[in-house]
Amino acid sequence: MPTDHEEPCGSSHKSFCLNGGICYVIPTIPSPFCRCIENYTGARCEEVFLPSSSIQTKSNLFAVFVALAVLLVTLIIGVLYFSCRKGHLQRASSTQYDINMVETISANTRHSHGEH
Questions:
Q1: What are the respective helix, strand and coil percentages of the chain, to the nearest 5?
Q2: CATH code of residue 32
Q3: Which of 21, 77, 93, 101 has the greatest CB tally within 10 Å of its CB?
Q4: What pTM, to 2 d.p., does this model score?
């Protein structure tokens, strides 16, 4: 929609705008400009405007989400693995401690009863 300062182009600029764009001039500016119809952009409406940028953004967000999900799952698996391993080592250490205590008690019992 033209403003008060804009005027439609004359016949000298009839084909200035492409793809159905509407040509306007501002008397104080020597070169014309275009108002593009939907899905076109550029100084002369020469470029097709694809709303794929929003699709690309959604695709990028999905890729980031998947990467974070994989990282989180890997982290959880790592924590569970090391927790189980630590628990296993503590049980093994505790069992070894129990065996050593039994041997010490057994040896002390033999020494106190006069066995050498």
A1: 55, 10, 35
A2: 2.10.25.10
A3: 21
A4: 0.40
